[in-house]
Amino acid sequence: MLKQKLSGSDNLNKNLKSVFTLPGPKGKFIVGNAIDFGQNPLGFMTQCAQQYGEIIPLHLGNSPTIVLTNPNYIEPVLKDRELFVKAKALKSLHALLGNGLLVSEGDSWFRQRRLAQPVFHQKRISGYGEVMVDYTNNMLDTWRDGETRDINADIMRLTFNIVMKTLFSSDVTEKQADDVAQAMSVAAEWFLARRKSPFSLPEQFPTPSNLRYKHAVERMDKHIYQIIQERRSSGEESLDLLSMMMQARDEDDGSQMSDKQLRDEIATLIFAGHETSANTLAWAWMLLSQYPEVQTKLQQELKEVLGDRSLTVADLPALHYTNMVIKESMRLYPVVWNMVSETSRDCEIGGYHVPAGCTIIMSQWVMHRSDRYFEQPETFNPERWAGDLEKQLPRGVYVPFGGGPRICIGRSFALMETVLLLATIAQKFDMSLVPGQSIVPQPTITLQPQNGIKVVVKQRGNQPN
Known about the structure:
Shape: globular
Radius of gyration: 23 Å
Number of strands: 13
C-alpha cells in the first residue's frame, strides 16, 4: 500500500501529475512563500495544514518544497535514507557540526552510527543519572524561596554543565566551557537570521554575521581538539562519553574514530544534548505553572514513590505520571519542531510526481497539535498518554525524536535526563509564572522561548534527604 503512495524513480509512472499542481498558499514574486515561512513558520504551516490537503506545495525562493501532513507519507520519508537525504538547510551547519551524525549521509553516517551506538546503550547511560541529580541539586541550592528565576536560562546552563561532565569528566576549564557555550549560542542566532531572510549570502562570504559565527566555532574547535589530544597523550580511560567513543571500534575493520570524527560527534552531542533537554523542561514548567492541578498530581506521585528520599535512576520505571508530563510537554512544544529532507531523485508521493531536489517538510508542531489524532489538542493533558496511546497512533504522528533509522541516538539519554531533572526540581520547589509576561515560541534550530520564562519559585516543605 505504501509503495503505491510513495516510490522512487525506478517504479515511477511518467504520466503522474506534478505535486505542484496541488492547491497551496500563494507566494510573492521571486521569493514565493519564503518571507511568510521565515517570519512565522509555526503559524504559517498550521494555517496551510488547515486550509489545504495532505501534500502542500510551497516555493521558498528558488527551492521547490512540499509539506506533508499524512503519516502514511511521513513514515516512509523517515525510513528511506537513500531516497530522502538531509536538506541543504541542515547542511549549512557543517562548520559547527562537521560530518557528525546529524549532518552526515550514506556510508559515512552508517559507520559513525554503528560506532556510536554502543556508547548510548541503556546500561551505560544509566551511570550518568547520579551526575544529573547531583548537578540539579547544586543548582537548587542557589535558589531562594520567593525569588524570580528565568527557568529557561537556569536549566539551559544546567544541562550544558551535565553534557560537558558526561562527555569529558573533569577535563574542562571554565574558559573552555564558556567558549563552547558561546559557539552554540552564536550558531543558533546565525541559523535563525538565515531562516528569516530569503536572501542569505553563503557562510564563506565575510559578512559580520558569518565572521562572528566562524570565529566562535574556531574557538570551540581549539578547546575540543586540545581535550582530545590531552586524553590521547595521557592514555587515561574513564567512563565518560569521550573515552567510550575513543575506545569504539568498527566491527568490520577494527578502525576507530579519528580526531576529526571525534570532534564532529562531540560538537553534535553538545549541540543536541543540552538545548533539547533544557527547552523541553522549560516548556514543561511553563505548562505546569499554567495547570496547577497537574503540578499537584506530579508532586503527589513523587511523594508516593520517593517519600522524603532523593531520586535515583532505579525510581524511573515507577514515575508513570512524571513520564507522561514529559511526553505531553514534548507533544505541545516539540523542541525538534520540524524535520526537513530532500529528494535525491524523482519519486512519487500520494500519486503525484515529486522532482529530484525537492525539499520535504514534516512538522512535529503541526502533527502533534492535529485534532485528527488528539482530542482537545491545545490542552495540556498528561493522562492522555495512559493506556499506550503512543502505540495506538499511526507512525509518523508523534515523533519528538524523529523516526526511522535516523531516530535520535541520544533518545534514552534525553528521556532519562528530562524525567530526572523535572522530578528533582519538583520535589523541592513549586513554580508560578510571573504575570504579564509574553512567552513566545521561537523556532530556531530548536523550539525555545524567545524571551525566556520567568517564574516565582516557592520552596516546598519536607525536603528530601
